[in-house]
Amino acid sequence: MRHWNGRKNALFLLVAAAVVLCAVAVAGGLLSRQAMVTDFTRKNLAPSGQFLFGTDWMGRDMLSRTLTGLSLSIRIGLLTAAVSAVIALVLGVASAVLGGWVDAVISWCIDLVMGIPHILLVMLISLAFGKGFVGVVAGVALSHWPSLARVIRGEVLQLRGAVYVRTAEKLGVSRLTIARRHLLPHLLPQFLTGLVLQFPHAILHEASVTFLGFGLSPEQPAIGVILSESMSYLTTGKWWLAVFPGLSLVLVVVLFAAMGEQLRKLLDPASVHM
């Protein structure tokens, strides 16, 4: 009974977090036009019943801008995490299955990428791709795969020692068929958990490089752009320009992290008792 209750709680928290994040993404998309509307007669208004997050120096509604920025961050996070996870899956499986010089090269690449600070690597890749949306996506996607690739490689090495895998090898089954039929189904839990857990990292790094000026263009209502612009007004007492967008970003990151943790519990039933 405790096991069943633990799984129900994990499923409920997972669905609740997903619903909230979907609502934020949809609301941001619907408010994208309103987020760009300027009205200098209402500039720098403090939070009130009419403007819950206040307005900025151009009279733009900060609630609309925050939701639009979060929606953009979520979309970028989904895209970059998916690309990064697929890269990790392909390289991790290839490294463990092919072995030899392929394993050596992939392991060297993993060590190299993990040895460079993420923010620095994302900025360099973003610059190489011309910054903007393409630069941010490329920077985040090409810098977040090593950790998951290493986990998948270790899991595949363990699976290769299983009796049914060794039997398939002795029967002459090709490595590609073994990977497809016997390895990939067992890797699905680690892959899905790693995929979801990459979302918060992707979103934070997208916002960070944009804040530093190496990401999305200033014309876009991204969270990094909003926080960067608000720095000039904090000393004048316009605290709401940074506090509410910053807290909203933290909330989204925490929700993604919670989704990853609950998904891990569902895919690994033993962890429900921990």
Molecular structure report:
The protein has helices spanning 2-30, 62-98, 100-114, 118-128, 132-141, 146-159, 163-170, 175-211, 223-230, 240-267. It starts with a helix and ends in a 7-residue tail after the last helix. It is built from ten helices and no strands. It has one domain (2-34, 59-273): Orthogonal Bundle (MetI-like fold).
Compose a concise summary of this entry.
The chain has a single domain (2-34, 59-273), classed as Orthogonal Bundle (MetI-like fold). Helix content is 72%, strand content 0%. It contains ten helices and no strands.
Question: What keywords describe this structure?
Answer:
274 residues; mainly alpha; MetI-like fold; elongated
**Low-confidence segments, ≥5 residues, pLDDT <50?**
none
CATH superfamily: MetI-like
Order of helices and strands: HHHHHHHHHH
Kindly name the structural category.
mainly alpha
Overall mean pLDDT score?
84
Can you count the beta strands? 0
The CATH architecture can be given as Orthogonal Bundle
By CATH reckoning, the class would read: Mainly Alpha
Quote the distance from N terminus to C terminus: 15 Å
Q: How much strand content do the residues show?
A: under 5%
Q: What fold name goes in the CATH topology slot?
A: MetI-like fold
Give me the Rg, rounded: 22 Å
Largest sheet: none
Shape verdict: elongated
**Helical region count?**
10
What is the domain total for the residues?
A: 1
Helix content bin: over 70%
